[in-house]
Amino acid sequence: MPLPDLTPAEDTLEPVETWPIARLRALQTERMRWTLRHAYERVPHYKRAFDDARVHPDDFVRLEDLARFPFTTRQDLRDTCPFAMFAVPRERMARIHASSGTTFKPIVVGYTQQDIDTWAAVMARSLRAAGVRAGWAVHAVHGCGLFTGGLGAHYGTEKHGCALISSSGGQTGRQVELITDLRPEAIIATPSHILAILEQFRAAGIDPRESSLKVGILGAQPWTNAMRAEIEDAFDMHAVDIYGVSGVMGPGVAQECVEAKDGLHIWEDHFYPEVINPKTGEVLPDGAEGELVFTTLTRAAMPVIRYRTRDLSRLLPGTARTMRRMQRIASD
Predict the structure, then answer these.
(1) Strand ordering across the sheet containing 271-276
(2) How far is CA 189 from each of CA 210, 221, 314, rounded to the nearest angstrom?
(3) What is the pLDDT of residues 170-212, one digit of tens each?
(4) Which of 50, 128, 179, 222 is least buried, going by the fewest C-beta atoms within 10 A?
C-alpha cells in the first residue's frame, strides 16, 4: 500500500515559498545588505575580519559580492565565546543555547525575541512542508536543554497549531508507551532514536505499522535512503529529513518536503546558502559538490557571515518550492 498523500494545501503555503526567483533574490540582497552592516557595526570580530580582508559593507551591491567577505568558522565562535559574537547586549537576549563542549570549548549562541519568533516561524514552515497538519499531536524526542533541537521543535510545533508531546530522549520503552497511549500523528527525532524506538516496538510485541504515526521528521544526524525505506516500511509512515546548524539558528534551516523527498528546501528568505571548494574557498556553481556555507539574513542577536558548516552537499534548483534545495547530508 502506498503511503498517504500529505502534500500541504497550496493555500497553506507562505507566499514567499513560491515567489519568482528574481523577487526572492531582491529580498535576499536587501536583507544581506542589512546583515553585513549590522555585523560590521556591532560585532568587533566582524569589524576586524572585514578590515583585515579590506572589504566594507558598502562594497556589497549584488549577491555575488558576498564572495569578497571573510568566512566564519567554528573556531571563530569558540575563540569569541561566550558573548563576543553577540550584536546586542546580553540583557536584550531572550535565550542562550550552547553546544555540549565535551571535547572543545562550547559554542554559545544567542537569540532576541525577534529571533525566536523567526525560528518558530521557519520551524512551523518546516513542519507544514513535512506534511504535518495543524491540530495534530507531535511527539518530540529531542531534549529541551542547551541543545537547540528541543526548544526549536517546541516553539515550531506550537506555532503550527499542534499539541506538543515533549518526551525528551532515552527511556525507549517509555517512548513506545507514550506513542501507543497518546497517539501522536508525527514524531521529531534523530534517525538513531527512531530505529531504537522501532526495536522497542518489536521487543514489546507491538506492530509499529499499527501506531498512529504518519510522519517522522528526522535530523541532527546523517542518514541514508536505505534507512528511510526501512523506517517508512516498518512504521507505514513518511520519513523526511530536516537540517539545522546551531551556529546559524538551529533546526529549521532547511526541510525536505513530503511530496517530493528529493532534497531539503533551504528557507532562503532567512538563510543564504553557498557551496565552496573546502580547500580553496572558491564559490562553486549550483550543482557542484562542496562545503555548505550559510549567511543569516534576519538574525538580530548573532548575525553569522559565511559560516562554514563542514557539511558536504550541493545546491539544486527548487522543485516543490521556488527556494533552492540542498542535497541530503548522507552517512557513508
Answers:
(1) 271-276, 290-296, 307-313
(2) 19, 10, 24
(3) 677 889 999 999 999 999 999 999 999 999 999 999 999 999 9
(4) 222
Integer CA distances (angstroms), 1 to 77, 215, 234, in order:
48, 16, 13
Q: Is the pLDDT of residue 331 over 80?
A: no
Q: Identify which of 274, 139, 321, 280 has the alpha carbon closest to the alpha carbon of residue 216.
A: 139
Ramachandran class of 318: left when φ > 0, alpha when ψ lies in -120 to 50, beta otherwise:
beta
Residue 293's φ and ψ, nearest 5 degrees, are -130, 140
Residue 82, preceding peptide bond in cis (omega within 30° of 0): yes
d(CA 231, CA 236): 8
Judge residue 140's burial from the number of C-beta atoms within 10 Å of its C-beta, 0-12 exposed, 13-18 middle, 19 or more buried: buried
Contact 32, 297 (CB under 8 A): yes
In the block, residue with C-alpha cell 520551524: 123
The model's pTM is 0.95
In terms of phi and psi (left: phi > 0; alpha: psi -120 to 50; beta: otherwise), the region of 163 is beta
Phi, psi torsion values for 282, nearest 5 degrees: -65, 135
Q: Are 167 and 196 in contact (CB under 8 A)?
A: no
Half-sphere exposure of 219 toward its Cβ, with a 13 Å CA cutoff? 30
- Cα separation, 302 vs 109, whole angstroms: 7
pLDDT at 145 over 70: no
According to DSSP, the β-strands at 325-326 and 95-98 are unpaired
Mean pLDDT of 57-64: 98
